[in-house]
Amino acid sequence: MSAPLPLAGLRVLDLGHYVADPYATRILADYGAEVIKVETARRPDMTRKLPPYAGGVNDPNRGGWFMNANYNKLGLTLNLGHPGAGDLLLRLVGLSDVVSENFSAGVLERLGLGYETLRTVRPDIILIQMPGYGRTGPYSPLRAVGPTISAFAGIDATIGWPDGPPLPTGRVPVPDYLNALGGVIAVLAAVEHRARTGEGQHIELSQHENTVATQGPSILQVQLTGTWPERNGNRDPVAAPQGVFRCRGEDAWCAVSVQSDDEWQAFCRVADRPDLTADPRFATAAARRAHQDEAEAVVAAWTAGHSPDEAMGRLQAAGIPAGAVRNSRDLTADEQLASRGYFDRFERPDVGAVTVTASAARFSETPAAVHRPAPRLGQDNDYILRDLLGLTGPEVERLIDEAVIA
Amino acid sequence: MSESSGLPAALAGLRLLDLTDASGAYGVRLLADLGAEVLRIEPPGASTDGTLGTGEKGTPVTTAGLAARYDNLAKRSLTLNLDEPDGQKLLRRLAETADALIETSPPGHLADRGLGYPDLAAVNPRLVYTSLTPFGQAGPYAEFRQTPLTALALGGLLSTMGLPEGPPVQAGVPLAYLLAGQHAAAFTQIALIGRRLTGRGQHVDVSVQACVAAAVEGPLQIYLMTGQAYPRIGAQRRLEPPNGTYACADGYFCIFVLDWPAFARWVCEVLGDDELLDPKYEGATNALRAPHAEAIIPRVQEFALRLTRAELLEGAHRTGQIGGSVLTPDEVLADPHLADRNFFRTIDWPDQGPVQIPGAPYRLAATPWRTPAPPVAPGADNEAIFQDELGLSPADLDRLRRSGVI
Q1: How far, in Å, CA of A191 to CA of A195, rounded?
Q2: N or C, where is chain B less crowded by C-beta within 10 Å?
Q3: Residue of A nearest to B62 (CA)
Q4: Most A CBs within 10 Å, among B239, B263, B326, to test the A interface
């Protein structure tokens, strides 16, 4: 008999959208929580509307990013803007352990669903709210997305070339993932506390603050030294040479980071440059930093003759940290990720097989699995309304007619 | 650990053994901040000197050096040489009563010393053993070394960062390690909660590469569904104009336009012409404006240069857009919103005096975050743990010190 998943029996009512909340609840679902994603067809989650779409058809049930972030969850359509929706949601809250959301500050309260109201139906409820800038303060009315949080938190200022502008992380909203993980950590702390005491609690995670907390070292550095990690390309303040070097092929690169004198010697052997092993310009880290342009030119001359994987393989075999720069195509073909079964899939009749990224962890006793497809809008309405809440067929029909279920 | 609000700590009573390097230390800190007793275990004599986190003399102070301090606040500190049988014995004794051990050694390294998961599970079946490694415990890259840059490369995030025509470019802060450490902490909590159902711990194998790739799910789905690898897009999103980061009067600003007509009116007011009000630029989504990127982006750049970040932030909010100021770390420290929320905390930095550190990443009402104590010297808790708790004599400790075990 296999062990139950760690979060079996935990029910999460997920009112969130986009990434910061959904990735958190997907991790909870991966490890056994029953996550009910509450949506409305009237304002589909942003990731249902963004390309790409399964089969290239722009349809809210075909959004690729949505499906990757929301598999393993159940889907309910409930139009929270409808005056009749609040009672229904509260009945669900009464059956749930956790409620999560990442609305703008004040939205949940304006819907009449603030923490104290939730407690009236479930005294030990755990509510996590993840507004962009927190529930109070001058920025709290502002809407946020991952890239604007990254800007405000001081991350973007560190990305780019000397004398060049800050470059955002493009299509990857890094703070959303940091904040999703912060959400998981906070919710599970509350779950632990409740297991010990029976007490739930109210959690406020300001996406801005959770992200700034990760930037503590820079904030310390600026106070203690007056400096901070200014844009410096791919260089490191200590290790040299370090960079991203062009390889053979199109848009082909390998990151290389020579961390010690021994590694420099090893590089000289790999690159067949015995003349450089005793060259005083490169003999110590300080010397290599002083002659970074030249050291980098030596590395670049060598990598140019190799593919990224060849360069990585040869350098790693010599004990030098090196990493081929993977793009999304390369990742799907990456042999290491394949060996971990990182790409998994679900089947759903309307879209067929959808490849998704699996958990970043492998648990020895209770491994995660893709056990349920991402939900179509309202896919699990029947189970939730009839089985969980005990509504009759006619009652459900009426709610649909009135556009409460919508 | 240093302030008491009278309220409990969520993870009080849990003891975690922390054998992580820079890739995992911040994640473990998050659990310490929630009240877990974390025993940080490092080799004797290996720590950085001084309070600024520098290594050898003459090495510049770096963000990474300060991270070694910041990431290890709120933890107790032990030194143990795990290459020595006496050191291994002491770790085994600690493992007998610990709840979790989190480590980042190369696969097999601890097992070779009789300290692998099966070894420690034999003395403590309830132990959760989390291994965070660059690529996981097995697979073709399992022995590869990593730095924050190579991890960013192999996880697929680096390829999305930078100018379209240039090499990919990293952040000056270790994004890959932030993603990885937080994942490891969350997975450790999941396993600890799972222990309530099974009575047993387990081995949690986390791959840094997979943690980074998790954040790249958007571009991955683009490739999987369209066959296109997402390109580097630079600062402005030519495929969704005018979204992007622009130079402005006093720095840089990041804007995401949700209401094009309102935005176009604002730009035209500032520039004093009607160009962007031309109906050819209209469209329900920014993607529909992509054919006009070459006309739109330079105008928006001209507009932005006339306004300060404060003016852009106010105007973005007023016209229904999403905006964010690109701040440097000193500006983050001076952010009036964070001041209003009392986000930063003051602690005494050894030899430096009071400094401000980020405060709570999330606010748990019933089990609040606590300001950590100032950084402790490596081995500061050797006597308290090895002598007072495990019963070694002062003479034992002297002998162990002299033989380099602690």
Answers
A1: 6
A2: N
A3: A237
A4: B326
Whether B3 contacts B23, CB under 8 Å: no
Single out the residue of A232, A219, A311 nearest to residue B357, CA to CA: A219
Residues 6 or more apart whose CB falls under 8 angstroms from that of A317 comprise: none
Scanning the structure block, which residue is given the tokens 């240093």?
Answer: B2
Query: A174–B69: do the CB atoms touch at under 8 Å?
Result: no
Please list, in sequence order, all residues whose beta carbon lies within 8 angstroms of the beta carbon of residue A269, skipping any fewer than 6 positions away: A277, A318
To test the contact with chain A by mutation, choose from B217, B222, B258 the residue with the greatest count of A C-beta atoms within 10 A, namely: B217
How far apart CA A250 and CA A239 sit, in angstroms, is 28
User: Nearest to residue A334, comparing CAs of B152, B246, B255, B209?
Assistant: B209
For the stretch A267-302, pLDDT in tens is 999 999 999 999 999 999 999 999 999 999 999 999
Nearest CA in chain B to A284: B59
Structure confidence by residue, pLDDT tens digits, A196-233 = 999 999 999 999 999 999 999 999 999 999 999 999 99
- Residue A25's Cβ-side half-sphere holds a number of Cα atoms within 13 Å equal to 36
**CA gap B28, B9 in Å, rounded:** 15
Give the whole-angstrom CA distance, residue A91 versus residue A60. 27
ipTM: 0.98
Contact: B62, A68; criterion CB under 8 Å: no
B197 to A8: CB separation less than 8 angstroms, yes or no? yes
How many CA atoms, within 13 angstroms, populate the side-chain half-sphere of residue B77? 20
Mean pLDDT of A39-61: 94
CB spacing of B367 vs A193 below 8 angstroms: yes
Which residues numbered 9-68 in B keep a CB inside 8 Å of some CB on A?
10-11, 26, 30-31, 34, 52, 55, 58-64, 66-67
Q: Which residues pair with B355 in a beta bridge?
A: B347
Q: Which residues of A touch B143 (CB under 8 A)?
A: 316
For residue range B31-66, list pLDDT tens digits in order: 999 999 999 999 998 655 444 444 455 566 788 889
> How far is B276 from chain A, CA to nearest CA, in Å?
24
Q: Which two tokens stand for residue A374?
A: 């991402």
pLDDT in tens, B172-220: 999 999 999 999 999 999 999 999 999 999 999 999 999 999 999 999 9
- Of the candidates B34, B138, B352, which has its C-beta nearest A224's C-beta? B352
- Asked if A175 has any chain B CB less than 8 Å from its own CB, the reply is no
> Residue B349: enclosing H or E segment and its boundaries?
strand B344-349
- B26 membership: H or E segment, kind and range: helix B25-33
A262 a catalytic residue: no
Token pair in block for residue B196:
């309530």
CB contact under 8 A, A201 and B366: yes
**pTM across the whole model:** 0.97
Mean of all residue pLDDT scores within chain A: 97
Report the relative pairing of strands A322-324 and A242-246 from DSSP bridges: unpaired
